[in-house]
Design a protein that fits this description.
The chain is of the alpha/beta class. The protein contains 15 helices and 13 strands.
């Protein structure tokens, strides 16, 4: 078996059937990471002793018919902002260099309690504040479709670990698109959960009112199983969710369809045609009220990010990559009154969005309007870095601002994805729907 190309769900079934040894599986991934030329650009550090101990325990449980979950014994990677007891956790920043937590984050504890094996920590954008995945301070993981391009951020190494076959699944975070952008550019499924659904205790923050935890994986089934593991509960059953007949989708037109690059534009049009052919109703949807919150995003994000990190950055500004430091510092210009008023406007827009989208199964848009940029060009052209970073996160940010859950699915065109957005706490319904869409696009 080629473990590196199998989904986490398939691997889990193999363990349950006695066909796959969790110890051999974990050793395979650890050896693959060490041998792969991209390994050092993807993983910040490994946790081999922990991984092998967890795999040994999973092997015993499997032999005794006492598996803790469908993913018991499955090796996964963790973005380097999830606290890991006794292991350096730096969130891609030299501001936190050498930081060693004394306990696991709550979400890692939940996953470990259900048998997931921790392979190690993956590289990421500095303090999670970039959609590109470019990090000259530590490492910039490559895109699986273009090794000279960035992987997307900020969960860059998380996506690369799965796409390059160096983890069965990965755990990342999403504040403005940081699970979905690296997922789309690496042809993965990425789930942005509702803010507040999964614990952020022991997760290095960026903007806590928007920060969310979510999986990056190969299939919708994997996403459903990973969500359950991150929450410490029994997963939903996705069987029998193959039809799109009678489903009604709103296709957002406002802002997200502007300045699409050729490949994402073609992929989106072709994807909608396939959904129609599968029986779905496709309805163009204009929502001008989103324009205000999109303009307010600088206030909403940078004010909170600067409030969280401003003192540390001012104390050692030389430790940061300039464009990331400047993005944080932009938050210093806004007042408390600016921030409160922006949130009031956002909450009004969220209520309007909920009313206008209530009659649809999901709201659709292209996940990213662009393709992964070349790393060298981003480093050499400062203006290009700024414009690409802003447009990269533009479409995904809609989901964060409107406060719901969202998932990106591969379209079959490399580095182009379809985003489905649903109301807050509707992850189960969204996953059922995404499974049907995945089947239609297969």
């Amino acid at each position: 078996m080629d473990y590196s190309k199998m989904s986490a769900s398939e691997l889990g079934r193999g363990i349950g059937a006695g066909e796959i040894d969790p110890v051999a599986l974990t050793r395979h991934f650890l050896d693959a990471i060490q041998a792969h030329p991209m390994g050092p650009r993807i993983y910040a550090r490994l946790t081999p002793q922990r991984a092998m101990a967890e795999a040994e325990a999973a092997k015993v449980r499997a032999a005794n018919g006492q598996r803790l979950s469908p993913l018991d014994g499955i090796p996964v990677s963790w973005k380097d902002l999830f606290d890991t007891a006794g292991t350096v956790t730096e969130a891609g920043s030299h501001l936190l260099r050498g930081r060693i937590p004394d306990r696991d984050s709550e979400v890692l504890r939940s996953a470990t309690a259900l048998g997931l094996v921790c392979l190690g920590k993956t590289h990421m954008s500095e303090l999670a504040f970039s959609g590109l995945g470019l990090n000259p301070v530590t490492q910039s993981p490559p895109c699986v479709n273009d090794h000279d391009a960035v992987a997307g951020g900020s969960s860059s190494g998380a996506a690369a670990s799965v796409a390059f076959g160096l983890a069965a699944a990965a755990v990342g975070s999403d504040t403005g698109g940081s699970v979905r952008i690296p997922s789309v550019w690496n042809d993965l499924v990425g789930l942005k959960t509702t803010s507040g659904r999964i614990s952020l205790k022991g997760v290095v923050p960026l903007a806590a009112r928007f920060d969310t935890v979510g999986p990056l994986c190969r299939t919708v089934e994997d996403a459903a199983l990973m969500l359950a593991a991150l929450e410490g509960r029994t997963p939903i059953d996705l069987r029998g969710q193959g039809s799109l007949k009678g489903r009604r989708f709103a296709v957002l037109q406002t802002i997200v369809m502007e300045d699409l690059r050729d490949a994402p534009a073609r992929a989106h049009a072709e994807t909608l045609d396939r959904l129609r052919a599968a029986g779905a109703e496709i309805v163009p949807f204009d929502f001008p009220a989103i324009e205000g919150p999109m303009k307010d995003a600088a206030i909403l994000y940078t004010t909170e990010a600067w409030g969280t990190w401003g003192k540390a950055i001012e104390a050692q500004p030389q430790l940061m990559f300039g464009p990331i430091r400047d993005r944080f510092a932009a938050g210093a210009q806004f007042t408390g009154a600016d921030y409160v008023a922006a949130w009031q406007r956002l909450e009004a827009a969220r209520a309007d969005w909920a009313r206008q989208t209530a009659g649809f199964d999901a709201v659709l848009c292209p996940t990213a309007p662009n393709l992964p940029p070349k790393l060298d060009k981003l480093m050499q052209q400062g203006d290009y870095y700024v414009t690409e970073n802003l447009i990269t996160l533009r479409n995904t940010r809609v989901g964060n601002l409107m406060g719901g859950c969202a998932i990106t699915l591969p379209t079959g065109t490399k580095s182009c994805g379809l985003s489905l957005m649903a109301p807050p706490m509707a992850e189960e319904r969204l996953l059922h729907l995404a499974k049907a869409v995945e089947t239609a696009l297969a």
